[in-house]
Amino acid sequence: MAFKLMIVGQVEKGEFSYKQIQEKFGMTGHVTVLNWLRKFGSLNWSKTEFVNKRSTPQKQIRELQRKIRQLENEKIILNRVIDLADETMGAEIRKKYLPLLSEASKKQQGKTQ
């Protein structure tokens, strides 16, 4: 048990990949370390998460760029809806709520830095 926990700790700390551990200790089972990680690890080692991590850095960059474009488009749409509501209903959403959101955002950024 101590050996398994040591292996899991080394992989989760980023000292070794699970494949490097397998080679280092001569493990022939391809999923042995992964099973230990799923059973004893503190990180999410589910099968779906593992499959997603196999993507190349270029593929991850493309996916993140796609997500950024999607979020930027959503932001444009939401801003248009706010403008429309302000114009047609006199709601003054921008005046009332956006300064509050801006303050909350600044406070949140201060906490993360």
Concise overview:
This protein is mostly helical. It contains six helices and no strands.
Describe the structure.
With 113 residues, this protein is mostly helical. It folds into two domains: 51 residues, no CATH class; 56 residues. Helix 1 packs across helix 3.
Topology, please?
Blueprint lengths: L1 H11 L5 H7 L7 H9 L6 H6 L4 H33 L3 H20 L1
The tally of helices reads 6
Low-confidence stretches: none
Helix/strand class: mainly alpha
Percent of residues in helices comes to: over 70%
What is the β-strand count? 0
Top keywords for this entry?
113 residues; mainly alpha
